[in-house]
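Subject: Predicted fold for Trehalose and maltose hydrolase (Possible phosphorylase), 576 residues

User T.R. writes:
Posting the sequence so we have a shared reference for the thread.
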Amino acid sequence: MQSVSNWKQSLDLKKAVHTTSFIIPGKAEIKYNITALRNLPYSGLIEVEIKALDHIQIQGLNTMDVPDGYNDIKKRIVSANVGLDGGKEIILQTEAWSSHKAHQVFASSEFIFDHKKLTIRSEDQNKNVIEGTLKKGETAKFSLVGSVCTSRDFNDPKSESERQVIYVSYLGTKRILKEHFALWEDLWKGDIEIEGDDEAQLVARSALFNLYSNALENSRLSISPMGLSGTFYSGHIFWDSEIWMYPPMLFLNQGIAKSMIDYRTDRLKAAENRTLTYGYKGAMFPWESDDKGEEATPINALTGQFEHHITADIAIAFWNYFGMTQDKDWMVKEAYPVMEKIAEFWTSRAVKNPDGSYSIRYVIGADEYAEGVDDNAYTNAAAKKALEYATLAAGICGKTAPKIWKQISDNLVISKMSNGVTQEYQGYKGEMIKQGDANLLAYPLGIITDPQQIKKDLEYYSAKVDKDHGPAMTFSVFAVQYARLGEAEKAYSYFKKAYQPNQRPPFGVLAETPSSSNPYFMTGAGGILQAFINGFGGLDITEKGIIQHKTVLPKHWKKLTIKGVGPERKDFIVSQ
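User M.O. replies:
I've generated the structure tokens; pasting them so everyone works from the same file.
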């Protein structure tokens, strides 16, 4: 291949456009933009511009590669209608079945170009070729639009994939991109601005961009830990959604937040069926939820059977949505039925001890290194909040909550060690932990409120975290808590640890751990944004709406502005 020069790549976070440009010396200057269309979420667009530096012939190839794991692959050329400029539209199409043949997938793509300047031909039913001749100084522009549709979303995914590329072809790329840009402009009404730290500003915007990119209002879908960046975690939904990614979306974009919890509402029946499978009552949500809401954890991991705090995490997310929106109608019709079933689960899951306390035995907590433990601090605390919130929700809905909910909530075991530190689980003796667990009782759960206790727990467990293989979110939580304690430099130090070791070139995308290379880790982005919003920004959600705690900024930050918060799109400012 001929060498190139002046290779440049950039990502426009504001408009969600990826640009590559380069020069083939003595031949051509080439630039192309790639856009995942916000207004057409099943479609993408590539725009190409070639400027001739000499008399040249150009040729663009459109082929389709199918990832491993798909079956019964077929490729074809589809001749469609005559286009608006009189040229015939030629669509390249590929179909395949998903690995277990649950869904049929169709991908269609089409070149959009000036038929007076360029020509198109097809080869072997699996390739479209666009070509032409340019004189020195002339410029050629063309685009490629593609759409992927499946039988999950469409009764006729073949025709729909064709319709979408024809739609773009007829409306024109200029109009399509204008609509895309307008939607992103609206998304950026929820923003974070930092004066005095360009690196932190870029980190904030990158995290927001990635979460916005991986979620869609009214989709009734949530975000997987790796989002749409790859097949790692198979697109399944974990606690990462409700505890890490959902909170910043709830503050800055309630439409996306609503879709994330709609995902759980729609899968309540599957969660109820799961309790029957394991001998409990109510609703037991899976640790690793597939599209049907069923457990999809690989069988070699025990988390699928025993990491039960996810069920409480969902109730907490529902309650916080009510706190943000005060939507009583939603609470009555959608939220309380889920929260009630979750409370019933914890009622059947907790065991009463001889002294009147309650235990939750044999679980895997947030710290997944500890398997099969009793009275895990985070699990018990999350269950406590789920029961409390279900009781409050019952009152809002004009119902009387069972007394057992409060009895269990008030008496769930949360222990301390002899040194006064909150004990991660019964029998914990200082072992290495995968990630924050007991520390989560201060934030986000708000159960531990005494500053001295919070500080004592922070100092103890910060020395126990696996710094090589633990996920990034722990350090985000440490940053939140130290900021609220008024210790700006410690907060800033942990804030940096939440992203710097995990960034990967060239765009600083986040890997899950300092030692892994599996970006993009959306969960880490959610944690970072909480450091800004809930830590340095001091924002919290209560039963009656948003409050702002007293907090501190790193000494070199002049001002932090959190823009477009809540339904009223308010701005919250912290300054030195």
